[in-house]
């Protein structure tokens, strides 16, 4: 039987006292009597009970870490996804792409990504992120320039493999870094993670939009300049934009609170960050041992979160074929084919930020995840059914509204594994690796452009079923989280009443 947690007002104070005395959350008594403005402020940005010093501390962290991470992810996606804009803007014809070679562009990139992903996460537990992450940024920025000189399709494949390998450490490295500096809900402060991961991830939409706008502008203004087609100019300009990321990264990246050597951070600020991490039981990083690896390998997050991310990576593939579908209609110019998909990216940007803000402000994780998972299923069914041009266009757009699933999922995952940095790094790396592994071969098999374009009915129908699995995985994670909480209570670690436990779960 479900426990009733609708407490009358006269009992709210006693409830708050009970929670304060019996849980590690240390929630103050006046939590339940916050003003409306305090609740609104929590939704907007880092509300709750924070000192002025703590707010300033986190703002300085944002100025350096978030600015570098967001711009870095922007250039990482810009440098890896501009291949689609180049393909539909003349590269296909100039280099004589045939058959399913368009699909192989993603396959070679993903293979490189897989080669670099897991080893990179192990390296991050031993090598300073402030050196490692900006260095791989610098290398992939140099590689971006090389695409402007490719003579044939085989060279493109080779460079795509190397680009994937060099870009693989970045996203999971940043997530690991964020998990070391930003906090979940504690002392009645709203969580800092989800909205920041959403901002970080929203850079992917901005990159895709910018690439579309940039290629459209280049095609009009630079196509044929200096004897080069517009798609080659795209890679040159992307390289020029990218080179600034690693330069800022060498200064801005602070490693973790216990080992930081950041020149912009004072000793006092570092000490305050350590206290913040201690308050949420995030300890100093430890060296990996076989005993720890065995514990991680036998703990459920490694498998359940990996399964969830595999589903998510597969069911968000339609946007990669939006421009291909538009080109196949033979009713739009090259300029329009580059421009129209940016509407989907704009949709994804708005919804991703909205999910992050709501998830942090309301302190809800699984409840918010239901929204993008539902949008994904609706969008998949529409593009699979292909009722008409207008509905299919809408199906692609609404699929973009489901991409915000990823930041909220990772915020939840970081909080589930908050006490163990090594487990966070390995689980995030493995989950991301398997997600990328599946999109290396699944699209080649069921979204073969030479066989199934432009409708891709078989592939999108299969993805509709996988979308159902993604939805179900939310409740699978929730079941494991609640099981762990019950075990803590039953073992006597936390003397909680059923009502208080249910109230905590509802958050």
Automatic annotation (TrEMBL):
It holds the Pfam family MFS_1. Residues 65-482 form the Major facilitator superfamily (MFS) profile domain. The keyword Nucleus does not apply. GO terms for cellular component: membrane. InterPro entries: MFS, MFS_dom, MFS_trans_sf. GO terms for molecular function: transmembrane transporter activity. The chain crosses the membrane at residues 131-150, 156-177, 198-219, 231-253, 300-319, 339-357, 369-387, 393-413, 425-446, 458-481. It is a multi-pass membrane protein. Keywords: Membrane, Transmembrane, Transmembrane helix, Transport. It is found in: Membrane. Belongs to the major facilitator superfamily. Allantoate permease family. PANTHER family: PERMEASE-RELATED (PTHR43791), TRANSPORTER LIZ1_SEO1, PUTATIVE (AFU_ORTHOLOGUE AFUA_3G00980)-RELATED (PTHR43791:SF39). This is Retrograde regulation protein 2.
């Amino acid at each position: 039987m479900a426990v009733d947690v609708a407490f009358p007002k006269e009992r709210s104070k006693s409830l708050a006292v009970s929670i304060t005395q019996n849980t590690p959350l240390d929630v103050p008594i006046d939590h339940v009597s916050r003003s409306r403005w305090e609740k609104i402020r929590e939704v907007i940005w880092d509300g709750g009970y924070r000192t002025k010093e703590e707010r300033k501390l986190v703002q300085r962290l944002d100025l350096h870490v978030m600015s570098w991470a967001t711009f870095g992810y922007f250039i990482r996606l810009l440098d890896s996804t501009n291949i689609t804009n180049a393909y539909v803007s003349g590269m296909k014809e100039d280099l004589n792409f045939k058959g399913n070679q368009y699909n192989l562009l993603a396959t070679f990139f993903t293979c490189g990504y897989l080669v670099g992903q897991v080893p990179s996460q192990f390296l991050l537990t031993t090598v300073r992120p402030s050196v490692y992450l900006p260095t791989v940024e610098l290398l992939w920025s140099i590689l971006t320039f090389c695409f402007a000189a490719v003579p044939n399709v085989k060279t493109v494949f080779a460079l795509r493999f190397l680009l994937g390998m060099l870009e693989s450490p970045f996203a999971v490295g940043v997530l690991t870094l964020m998990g070391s500096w930003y906090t979940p809900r504690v002392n009645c402060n709203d969580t800092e993670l989800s909205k920041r991961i959403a901002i970080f991830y929203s850079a992917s939409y901005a990159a895709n939009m910018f690439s579309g706008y940039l290629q459209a502008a280049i095609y009009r203004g630079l196509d044929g300049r200096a004897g080069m087609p517009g798609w080659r100019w795209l890679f040159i300009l992307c390289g020029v934009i990218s080179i600034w990321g690693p330069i800022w990264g060498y200064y801005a990246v602070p490693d973790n609170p216990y080992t930081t050597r950041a020149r912009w951070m004072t000793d006092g600020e570092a000490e305050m960050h350590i206290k913040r991490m201690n308050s949420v039981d995030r300890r100093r990083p430890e060296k990996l041992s076989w005993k720890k690896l065995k514990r991680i390998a036998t703990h459920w997050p490694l498998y359940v979160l990996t399964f969830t991310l595999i589903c998510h990576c597969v069911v968000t593939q339609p946007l990669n074929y939006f421009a291909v579908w538009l080109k196949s209609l033979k009713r739009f110019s090259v300029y329009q084919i580059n421009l129209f998909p940016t509407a989907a990216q704009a949709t994804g940007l708005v919804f991703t930020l909205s999910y992050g803000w709501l998830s942090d402000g309301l302190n809800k994780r699984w409840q918010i995840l239901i929204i993008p998972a539902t949008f994904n299923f609706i969008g998949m069914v529409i593009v699979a059914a292909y009722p008409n041009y207008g509905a299919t266009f809408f199906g692609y757009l609404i699929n973009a509204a489901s991409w915000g699933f990823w930041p909220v999922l990772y915020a939840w995952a970081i909080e589930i594994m908050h006490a163990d940095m090594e487990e966070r790094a390995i689980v995030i790396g493995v989950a991301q690796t398997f997600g990328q592994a599946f999109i290396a071969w699944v699209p080649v098999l069921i979204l073969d452009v030479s066989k199934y374009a432009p409708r891709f009915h078989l592939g999108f129908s299969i993805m509709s079923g996988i979308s159902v699995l993604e939805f179900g995985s939310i409740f699978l994670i929730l079941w494991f989280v609640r099981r762990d909480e019950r075990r803590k209570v039953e073992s006597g670690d936390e003397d909680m009443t059923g009502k208080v436990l249910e109230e905590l779960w509802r958050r």
